[in-house]
Amino acid sequence: MIEIDGSYGEGGGQILRTSIALSAVTLKPIRIVNIRAGRPKPGLRKQHIAGIELVGKIVHADVDGLSVGSTELTFRPTELRGGTYKYDVGTAGSIALVLQAVIPAAVLSSEPIELELRGGTDVAWSPPIDYMQNVFAPIIGKMGPKLQIIQKKRGHYPRGGGIVSCSINPTKELSPMEMIEFGGIAGIRGISHCVRLPSHVAERQAKAARNTLGNITSRIDIAVESYSRDEDLHLGPGSGIVLWAKSNTGSIVGSDALGERGKRAEDVGIEAAKRLLDELAAGKAVDTHTGDMLVPYLALAAGDSRVGISRVSSHLETNIWVTEKILGADISLIGKEGSHGELVVRGLDFSL
Q1: Which residues pair with 312 in a beta bridge?
Q2: Which residues contact 253 (CB under 8 A, 6 or more apart)?
């Protein structure tokens, strides 16, 4: 059994998600100890349990230690099956983080997998579903699987209530990636939204983002989505914006920002636009967040990959460490935390 020290590196939920995902796809049992040992509230929280439970259902795993506050977890997968699964993450627990744990195994399943998830779609410290749909899914699609993410209802902190469907048509093997430089900008798109707030909130976010992006490209299209205060489709108020730039080489780089009480709509739009400009300034093929999420897929791929990343993060370094521990993969990272980098991964040509 492989043992993972959950306090390594950034010592948070990323270790859990990647460990469970790789255990599921390889059917290797793992034990994770010292879970979130350095955090103010060590051990598992409800949002971590959600992803582990759902992955456990898909791979028919025996799981020990799955309770709030547990600092040790044993996960023994037995069989990876396709099918349809419904899961309520609870309140505003991040649906995107649950998908991070599920998708690596699902893309190599022998059968398609359909998910319907309830919880938070636009939550702090996690990718919005608009980002997962328009940045992450197309990039993973370049490796072979067909990944469709549809946001049916938004869910903001603290009440959640969002609904997301995700269809995964797997592939027999993952293709390697050779994506280093971003190239020229073909266009920028985005979605600015607000729910149970005046429609001008989403409009102001979008306008501020456009003004901040300036003349970087003549092709800027930011859609505006708003729902009235009286509309009862959503449980609570919230707003946010996701932006993504496509290149003439097929790269996609994204950014996002969330609204909050007391924060001007203009500041939300400016924040997202500045983040996108920072990501683009590095000139690399993928952004910070996609960079760390790609690691398990590149390690499982049928061939060697080289991917340029706009900024090396602690999550990226943690994902590399966990992936090497579980898969024995050969992964090199050129670049230091906080600067742009390049991943060089020797794929294991993994298939079920």
Answers
A1: 337
A2: 135, 182, 244, 245, 247, 276, 279, 280, 284, 285, 286, 287, 310
Active-site residue identified among 156, 234, 289, 315: 315
Considering just the CA atoms, what is the radius of gyration of the chain in Å? 19
Query: pTM (2 decimals)?
Result: 0.95
Residue 315 appears among annotated catalytic residues? yes
Q: Tokens representing 273?
A: 């636009």
Q: Where are the domains of the chain?
A: 1-80, 81-171, 181-281, 286-352
DSSP string spanning 215-270? TS-S-EEEEEEEE-TT-TTSSS-EEEEEEEEEETTS-EEEEEEE--TT--HHHHHH
CATH of 286-352, one of 3.30.1370, 3.30.160, 3.90.176, 3.40.50: 3.30.1370
End-to-end CA distance of the chain: 20
Q: What is the chain's pLDDT, residue by residue, as a tens digit (352 residues)?
A: 999 999 998 778 889 999 999 999 999 999 999 999 878 889 998 888 989 999 999 999 999 999 999 999 999 999 998 999 999 998 889 999 999 999 999 999 999 999 999 999 999 999 999 999 999 999 999 999 999 999 999 999 988 999 999 999 999 999 999 999 999 999 999 999 999 999 999 999 999 999 999 999 999 999 999 986 655 567 789 999 999 999 999 999 999 999 999 999 999 999 999 999 999 999 999 999 999 999 999 999 999 999 999 999 999 999 999 999 999 999 999 999 999 999 999 999 998 7
> Rounded to the nearest 5°, which phi and psi values hold at 138?
-60, -35
Does domain 181-281 bear CATH number 3.30.360.20?
Answer: yes
Question: Taking a C-beta distance cutoff of 8 angstroms, is the pair 205, 241 a contact?
Answer: yes
Tell me the two tokens of residue 178.
Answer: 């050779």
- Residue 29, CA atoms < 13 Å, CB-side half-sphere: 11
